[in-house]
Write a structure and sequence with these properties.
The structure is a single chain. This protein has about 300 residues and is mainly α. The chain has one domain. It is built from eleven helices and four strands. The strands form two sheets. Strands 1-2 form a two-stranded parallel ribbon. Strands 3-4 form a two-stranded antiparallel ribbon. Helix 4 (about 60-85) packs antiparallel against helix 8, helix 8 runs parallel beside helix 10 (about 225-245) and helix 8 runs antiparallel to helix 11. Residues about 1-45 have low confidence and may be disordered. Bound molecules: fe (ii) ion (2 copies). One fe (ii) ion binds near residues 74, 122 and 126.
């Protein structure tokens, strides 16, 4: 695990408590006191989330900030594709990175559009949840490259050189599929690392929502574009598998000529990815020690940012 404390403190500490590190701030103050000190309405950070961990293990704050980066990516993607605009400044944090690319999808089908409008609102609610519970520990939105990042992902999947995920409904669903499975497997992989039972319950609720998104996107892709969509979706799955290491943690939407809407192991459980495996996919690298690239050109913000 990469837990370099120094890389995470991109935000200024609370003015009233300048000498406290982020983690000691959490240890000393309950969420209510943080709310009083910062003027932010917070849920109290549970006591079990504050338990000291060994130096190698990421804290719950590290894990939730990791998730906040991914949720910010999803929010920018779906909001831009369904409204033409990204998240507001208030949702992006104090020092947000720029977002490159993304535009309104030329919607043809009202049902598909409504599905993705609902997904966009879910992702925005996830961002707001993390900002609420993390308070001043929340990292800002990292720089996100929706244009070059998805084009590079599509190249890696063999889908051609000029893939624009916002150019058509099918492309938009393919881009969504790239992210939703990463979300499902990232939340499952993080579950054993989360110390607070309350945070674990909340993360389970968010994992379920990502699973609904994934199932909807995969089943729509299976129906919408015939062999072309199925081949493209399988190519994205194969690309994820090449990037994330030697284990086979992915499945296409068609296996042996039959629908495969749910990627699972032999027990019908969703797969798990470590934060490093997730980072390889979103940075589009199969190497370790990489701290940016692909969808996050300057890397994610927070402690968990290196493959
Ligand atoms: Fe989400
Ligand atoms: Fe999602």
């Amino acid at each position: 695990m990469d837990t370099q404390e120094t890389q995470t403190v991109e935000e200024a500490p609370a003015p009233a408590l300048p000498s406290l590190s982020r983690r000691s701030l959490l240890g000393v103050l309950g969420g209510g006191a943080i709310a009083a000190a910062t003027g932010l309405a917070l849920s109290p950070v549970p006591a079990d989330a504050q338990a000291p961990s060994d130096a190698q293990a990421p804290s719950d704050v590290d894990i939730f900030n990791f998730a906040l980066n991914l949720e910010s990516l999803e929010t920018e993607y779906y909001l831009r594709g369904t409204t033409g605009r990204g998240m507001s400044d208030a949702d992006a944090g104090r020092n947000p990175g720029t977002v490159n690319g993304g535009h309104m999808v030329p919607w043809q089908n009202a049902d598909l559009r409504q599905f993705m409008e609902e997904v966009a609102q879910n992702e925005l609610a996830h961002v707001r949840y993390y900002r609420r519970v993390l308070g001043r520990d929340a990292v800002s939105r990292p720089a996100i490259d929706l244009a070059g990042g998805f084009a590079a992902a599509a190249r890696a999947a063999g889908l051609g050189d000029n893939f624009d995920p916002f150019a058509s409904e099918m492309n938009f669903f393919l881009g969504g599929m790239l992210m939703e499975d990463v979300g499902v497997t990232a939340y499952k992989g993080a579950a054993p690392l989360i110390k607070s039972k309350k945070f674990l319950e909340d993360a389970a609720g968010i994992l379920a929502v990502e699973g609904y998104h994934m199932g909807m996107v995969r089943s729509m892709l299976f129906r919408m574009g015939g062999a072309k969509a199925r081949r493209a979706a399988n190519a994205i799955s194969d690309a994820r598998d090449r990037l994330d290491g030697p284990e086979d943690l992915d499945q296409g939407i068609e296996v042996n000529g039959r629908a495969n809407i749910v990627p699972t192991d032999a027990d019908a459980k969703a797969f798990s990815r470590t934060p490093q495996q997730v980072l390889r996919i979103v940075y589009l690298t199969d190497r370790s020690g990489v701290s940016g690239g692909g969808l996050f050109p300057n890397g994610m913000n927070g402690n968990l940012r290196t493959t």
